[in-house]
Amino acid sequence: MSLKKVFIYVIGTSQDGGYPHLGCKEECCQMAWNNPLVKRFPSSIALVDMNVRKYWLFDITPEVKEQIHMLDAFECELAGVFITHAHIGHYMGLINFGLEVMNLNSIPVYVMPKMKDYIQKNSMFSQLIKNKNIILNSLNDNQNIIINENFSVKPFQVPHRNELSETVGFMIKGSEKSIIYLPDIDSWKNFKNALFELIKYNNLLFLDGTFYSKKEIKNRDISRIPHPEIIDTMRMLSHLKENDKKKIHFIHFNHTNDALREDSNIYDDIIKNGFLISKEKQLFNIN
């Protein structure tokens, strides 16, 4: 794929805790503990605009140190952060912007109202505002934000565990292509029609693939961590034409999910059904 001026770059594909997962001594993580080459970072993508030599993060994870290092290859500067919701894998990386680490200056952080309130009232993050490391910019549901002449971003609310904030997906629109980033949702039950519309009118969708099947969870109450199963998502979308199936890139894999492991039957099953699996360092042109 030839490099163009504005593109999406995948810098994380796993669930909030990364892969291998802290505390996991089971077979699912043992290979990753033994082989750093199969390590995966928490889900995040970056929009890189080579026209202005800047990039924007979509979610900022606890592993942002490594993820920003991945972006150093493009010799661009961080220009902003968009946050989907207040679960640790999606916002905790902000702490690195403060005096103790990067000591950045007035980085725009785009958040929904409840997320904004949460950050402002949290002493660890309010210091970033007080020290002018970050500036919070308010988002509104389904309101388009034009970042520059090369791309725009629109948040849209989705049902998820909103203990601390609302949850959104993002539509990132360039001059040629439109991308959906939707790493977390409880289920498609009340979002099915909206999903079909997103598939119809966008070119690529990063969709919640946390669990292939909820049967893979043995030691947790699965009702407390609702996510759609990949098997159900594939069944629901089985009628799609091949080109539309290829728009779907599952992301946000739990460490128990064999979609992380390319030699697994589950990985093969997803590919055989016509869908795709997100991988770090993938690049997708949008301009």
Structure report:
The chain is of the alpha/beta class and 287 residues long. It has one domain: Ribonuclease Z/Hydroxyacylglutathione hydrolase-like (Metallo-beta-lactamase, Chain A, 4-Layer Sandwich), CATH 3.60.15.10. 23% of the residues lie in helices and 24% in strands. It contains 9 helices and 14 strands. It has a 7-stranded mixed sheet with strand order 6-5-4-3-2-1-14. A 7-stranded mixed sheet has the order 7-8-9-10-11-12-13, covered by helices on one side.
Task: Please outline what is shown here.
The protein is of the alpha/beta class. The protein has a single domain (6-285), classed as Metallo-beta-lactamase, Chain A (4-Layer Sandwich), CATH 3.60.15. The chain is built from 9 helices and 14 strands.
